[in-house]
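Troubleshooting: if your tokenizer reports a length mismatch, compare your output against this known-good record of 230 residues.
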Amino acid sequence: MAGRVVLIDFDGTLAMRPGLWGACVLELLDELEPGHGIELERLRAGLRGGFPWHRADEPHLELRDPDAWWAPVHELIARVLVEAGLEAERATELARATRQRFCDPTRGWVLFEDSLPALARLREAGWRCAVLSNHVPELPALAAGLGLSDHVDVIVTSATIGYEKPHPEAFRIALRTAGDPDEAWMVGDNPIADVAGAEAVGLPAVLVRRAGEARLRAEDLHGAVDLILG
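Known-good structure output:
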């Protein structure tokens, strides 16, 4: 299948969950452990650097099964909670509960206002859209729950392919999954994972929603679409 495809990052580009992992864990603490006294910054500090995409230079093929991917994440969250003062058994319970909460499209996740209109513009112009994201195994269901199913043709998540952006193989797998298009772009909010990673395999890339070093940059997705169509 040839044609033209835009690879688009998910978190921070199409959708967001304010506070991400730390905020998700804090939500569960507030609900299930009232008066816990654990601050968000302590959770963030403990979780920082502990996910597979923080070691994107190496493959994680052993984590391609969803339960295998979540196992070290649960261990990480439980360890942070124990260090913050929770008993080990309770910390493990809350860590396991994070999976359902984080993957629930009705709890915390929102699409950016320009996401669906920008995707519609691309499709009307003859481009197919594919999500490529460093994310959880459940990303396809999460994206569907947010209303993206009718707007994207392919969803590729690092958790199920064993490679995280900016690893070149993540982009190669996404392109193969999208049918080896004749022309492709990458759009995302991370200057390293999205932009530098794409450019390293020969894809033009647009940085959106944040400052950073990039040859092409747009304030929002409409600006990115303007660059691609222009």
